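User:
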Amino acid sequence: MHPALLGLVTIIMGVGGCVGYFWLSNYVLDTFIYPPRGKNAGRNINRANIIRPWLFLFPALAALSIYLAYPVLETIRLSLTERVTQPDGSTVYDFVGLANYSQVMAEPKFWEALGNNMLWLIVVPAMSTAFGLLAAQLTDRIGWGSIAKSLIFMPMAISFVGAAVIWKLVYDARPPGAEQIGVLNAIYVYFSGNDPQQWLTIPIWNSFLLMIVLVWIQTGFAMVILSAALRGIPEETIEAAIVDGANPFQIFFKIKIPQIKGTIVVVWTTITLTVLKVFDIVFAMTNGQWQTQVLANYMFDKLFRSNDWGVGSAAAIVIMILVMPILIWNVRNVRQEMR
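Assistant: Predicted structure:
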């Protein structure tokens, strides 16, 4: 079957299946389980209305259970076991308790990855939020702001791997004397007269060069959210500040920022969650070499290169534990903002 036709059939079956499920489940509920007739009609209607929302939620709950809850539980189980191949070729999983976590904590590469993740957490959310806020403020004050916003937001449409390939070309280095196609080396050689540098092999600096890629992507996201928040600020407060003689900087920092503080926190924590799970950029540009290892890449190496499922799963649980407090905090902030 042609791929386009197959995709169309899949969509029709998916939509038809959902519609059919909702119709059939409500039909069975109203016809056989709690029919709205007879002496108990009122009670049946009330009970049916209590159950009905759960019928609509069931597909989502089932999908979350299969694709989220089950993988988490299975990963926890694997992190407490060791994969052993028997002489007959079969595989068994021996329970080893917290031994995999002890091995993770004893490996220097894990601490290198954790340290790099902490550095990413300090730099990327701060820079992305700051640049996004600056872009949101400035683009609202110019006539071609919509075009500027489109250009700044455009990297969000690029995959992390695609962005990594683009920036790897920016950092590219050719032999001394050759024409430099990497923008950074072309500028460096032209102004300094020195030989080109292999930027991604220089410890510490290479981590910052990788962070630039994620900042470039996430600035557009921060700009869109913060721009909407800035537009929601009541004009009366700004006009009152102008009447009182406040200058543009005072209006921005003392009037606007306090009113969108909740949105800034949400943007900050959302980007923080992305940073904790960063993998694609590091994998595509350095593969964790030259002291650029991060937790997600460390987990990938253990799972799919070393085939050490126990240690790899333990690393995945460590990442989940680090993400959970920030996720819970983010959800609480969103709920408070909605109230």
